[in-house]
Amino acid sequence: MATSFRQDAYINGQWRESAKRFDVLNPANQEVIARVPDLGARETEEAIAAAHAAFPAWAAKPAKERVQILRAWFDLMMADIDRLARLISLEGGKPVAEAKGEAAYGASFMEWFGEEAKRAYGRTIPTTTATRRYVTIKQPIGVCAAITPWNFPMAMITRKAAPAIAAGNTIVLKPPSQTPLTALALAELAEKAGVPKGVFNVVTTHDHTAEIGKAMCESPLVRKFSFTGSTEVGKKLGAACVGSTVKRLSLELGGNAPLLVFADADLDLAVKGTVMSKFRNAGQTCVCANRILVEDSIYDAFSKKLTEAVAKLKVGPGDEAGVEIGPLIDAKAIEKVERMVAEALASGATALTGGNKHAAGAQFYTPTVLANVTKEMRVNREEIFGPVAPLIRFKTEDEAVDIANATEFGLAAYFFTKDVNRAWRVAERIDAGMVSINDGIFSNEVIPFGGVKESGLGREGGVEGLEEYLETKFVNFGGFD
């Protein structure tokens, strides 16, 4: 899968080399595909200073001018979508067709937030006294810092960078060490689109992640911090931000999404939706259905249909024709899935299909359906992040909702039913930031994405996503006669 890409970091409009570099591996075969600068706190502080210097001029630009640059960035991404898709697949393992979908999804945030920036309205407030007039205005926050994950190496960047830049902020990004090349490709296109130097900066690292995070969290120049990743790490970063300089925070953290199938559901639709949700990106998404709850009376019928569908999924390298399941991202990921499945099987679960590594390579796992899973098993309590669907029986709606809510996480939830009353009732009762009814995929640029409980703070996407990067300033005009 030959494709061209940048291999240097991007700070203040300059491509930054480094004597110390780290390997970027293809997860399908563990081959080295690039060597990228391993930067640290000093370079991060330099990028923050550059972003701070660029902020006044960028914030002062009329929204319409910022929008034109974002539109050019979007157009360049869409024109380059095939190369971007190959790059996402090469460093992340995602099948090329799926990677192309992510590239388009990532570009959509540039278009959406560019359009929304022209509508960052303030308001007038009815006065309390004849001598005053009250208004609010929306202003950019300042320098933003962001840390993004490897499972959506483009979309998780643009979902943060697009609203930040559209609102008039500048940003310093640390992409994951597993997938830095997509971030650098975005910087390349930003430069071509006319994004001024210092507005978008990419600091790559492997060995210095903690010190870069510390620099971002503690810098007095950084006014907003956004992180997508594990709850454990997010808590530490959030505490560091609040404990040092009281920054604005957006945290999109772990999930443990339930998918409920009620007896009145369209079984074929439920199976299709389950496969789409559970097995997208080999189960490596924060919103994928982590545990499948099935009403007792249809459990056997649903299990059979799901097993047949999952057994047909084609496993292999992302650039191979027809592949639907690529590799897991690294050795730790495959070890975790193996361990969780082994524990479930030892505790009484049954593998209806799969349950083992796949012959395609060291980091491939066979798509798996586990029957007879209980609430106590780790595959129900923890995020699997792999192509494994645990099936749990329930008898009543109340029991299903109780199982669904019995977790510290609350990012996404899914359920299938034909009963409109139940649809409203269960949607309101499930404790999650996003609920999808009779549909296994819901993410797009126009909806607010985010969770409750320990799944995070704030929302990305939609009109709410722009608000996360704006301050509301109240202005009192006094002295009227």
Descriptive overview:
With 481 residues, the protein is of the alpha/beta class. The chain has 15 helices and 22 strands. The protein has 2 domains: 9-253 and 455-476, Aldehyde Dehydrogenase, Chain A, domain 1 (3-Layer(aba) Sandwich); 257-445, Aldehyde Dehydrogenase, Chain A, domain 2. It has helices at 41-60, 63-79, 81-92, 96-117, 155-166, 180-193, 209-218, 231-244, 267-279, 299-311, 331-346, 378-381, 397-405, 420-429, 462-467; strands at residues 9-11, 14-16, 21-26, 31-37, 123-125, 133-140, 143-147, 170-174, 200-202, 222-228, 248-252, 257-261, 289-295, 350-353, 368-371, 388-394, 409-410, 412-416, 434-437, 452-453, 456-457, 470-477. The strands form 6 sheets. The protein has a 7-stranded mixed beta sheet, with helices on both faces. Helix 1 (41-60) packs across helix 7 (209-218), helix 3 (81-92) crosses helix 4 (96-117) and helix 3 (81-92) packs antiparallel against helix 6. The radius of gyration is 23 Å and the shape is globular. It starts with 8 loop residues before the first strand and ends with a strand. The mean pLDDT is 97.
Produce a short descriptive summary.
GO terms for molecular function: succinate-semialdehyde dehydrogenase (NAD+) activity; succinate-semialdehyde dehydrogenase (NADP+) activity. By secondary structure, this protein is of the alpha/beta class.
